Model the fold of this input.
Amino acid sequence: MSDASTRDGATSAGSAASGRTYRPGVTLEGVTKTFGTAGAPVVALERVDLTIGDGEFVAVVGPSGCGKSTMLRLISRLSLPTTGKITVFDDTSTKPPIGMSIVFQNHVLLAWRTILENVLFPADMVGESKAPLRAKAMDLLTSVGLADFAGRYPHELSGGMKQRASIARALLLQPRLLLMDEPFGALDALTREQMRVDLEALWLKHRMTILFITHSIDEAVLLADRVIVMSPRPGRIERIMEINMARPRGLAARRDPEFLEKTEEITEIFLSRGVLHGEAH
Ligand SMILES: Nc1ncnc2c1ncn2[C@@H]1O[C@H](COP(=O)(O)OP(=O)(O)OP(=O)(O)O)[C@@H](O)[C@H]1O
Done:
């Protein structure tokens, strides 16, 4: 459960060799979340301590029910911890953090709005004028490969295209914090691979803090600066693993010895915790 911090408070999110140093962005201190009071309460998260650097890309991987989505909901303040403290860019209030966007597994595009109007939707939500944001929205649609689909409606797009539009929408107001809850979980393997490469490119361009939740060991290692490996319920941090592969990692990263080494290490953790079984059941 190492979470190295330097003396000036900056989080060291990489090895000395990688030279990555971040200021703290999101901090969880002794965070526990328990659901239900009568009968048998469910401890979804137990004593989680974690610092995510400002501008860092962190992935959380773990078995179903280990509290990954709970962690994301607590950081977004859609839900409050039972005990412990969560700080988001120095803010410890219980209001949704300013500058936060969320992307869920299933797109939440509005069927009656064009793709461009969907991408502009956050401006309506915060009462900003849309006109000055149109060029930005088009740029974002171009960067996710949807420039030609700005005038189409969601039902005219494939699942992957809809999820690209959701990501473009999440970036419209330049979030400082992007929470992604299994954003590629519903996509086919090829689309997923491409989305991963494209997300890395977007992150390298915008450098927002990303918390990316996934069931995929490969995806976590390929994308993140650090991978948080969760144990089965009650969800605890089992290991924090630094990934030092050079960026952009792109498709070639799958052949990097570090990719093989880290995915193997995480698989071993899950085997030892009974999350995975070497033999068929
Ligand atoms: N609102 C709720 N009320 C009661 N129990 C809940 C609630 N939300 C989550 N839980 C329980 O908390 C535990 C963690 O759930 P959570 O959704 O965070 O897991 P997860 O790791 O995201 O799972 P998955 O990978 O399947 O999405 C589970 O046992 C779940 O049943």
